[in-house]
Amino acid sequence: PGDLGDGIEFILSRRGVRQHYQVKRQTTKALGWSIAALGASGVLQHIPERIGANSDEFHFVSAMAAPELSELAENARSAGDFARFRSEFLPHGKRMEQWSSLVTPWQPREEMACYDMVKRIHAENISEELLRRQVLARVSAIVNGGAQQAANALVIFALESVNAALTPDTLWSHLATLSLPRRDWASDPHALKAFD
């Protein structure tokens, strides 16, 4: 609601870290998401207000990859500090152009502040079919009930919760109202038998 939803679909709080998610199915270009395409679609402009003044993370998820953003973020995390990042990963040419395209809209922030934000950006891609299979596998292991029913309930709940902060407790409470409680492995006879 309100400004909370600008530039994100949902926030997931995990282990004390707020993860801001922007999800795009695909881009019109078959090449994936370039930094220019992410900028043109409005994905990048809200990152500073979401994670600039805190330790939150920004996650971009799509069926198509965002290789430039992903590589810059991975390089920033592996560099250890801004001086090394700048000297080893932004020597000149195309990479420097990508960096400039990414951080120019974030000015007047200094490059060091931009580097700190880029370290907390994650660009992930996954196909819809693989996502479905992974959700069903994970749900079947933790929910006591029909995996497909629980997965469907979570999808509907997520769609109804756009621009809302979600926590694991929120999700478990919702599933409990549908008689889909957390699986109790300590009391599960099949699990106990496997340890004998």
Task: Please outline what is shown here.
The chain has 196 residues and is α/β, with parallel strands linked by helices.
Work out the helicity level.
40-55%
Q: Spatial order of the strands in the main sheet?
A: 4-3-2-1-5
Number of strands: 5
The biggest sheet, with number of strands, parallel, antiparallel or mixed sense and barrel status, is:
5 strands, mixed
Which key terms come to mind for this protein?
196 residues, alpha/beta, 5-stranded mixed β-sheet
SSE diagram, text form:
Elements: E1 10-14, E2 17-24, H1 35-40, H2 47-51, E3 57-62, H3 67-79, H4 82-89, H5 93-103, H6 111-119, E4 121-125, H7 128-142, H8 147-160, E5 164-166, H9 168-177, H10 189-194
Parallel strand pairs: 1-5, 2-3, 3-4
Antiparallel strand pairs: 1-2
Helix pairs in contact: 3-4, 3-6, 7-8
Describe what you observe in this structure.
The chain has ten helices and five strands; from the N terminus they run ββααβααααβααβαα. Strands 4-3-2-1-5 form a five-stranded mixed β-sheet. 22% of the residues are buried. The protein is elongated. The protein is of the alpha/beta class. α3 crosses α6 (111-119) and α7 (128-142) crosses α8 (147-160).
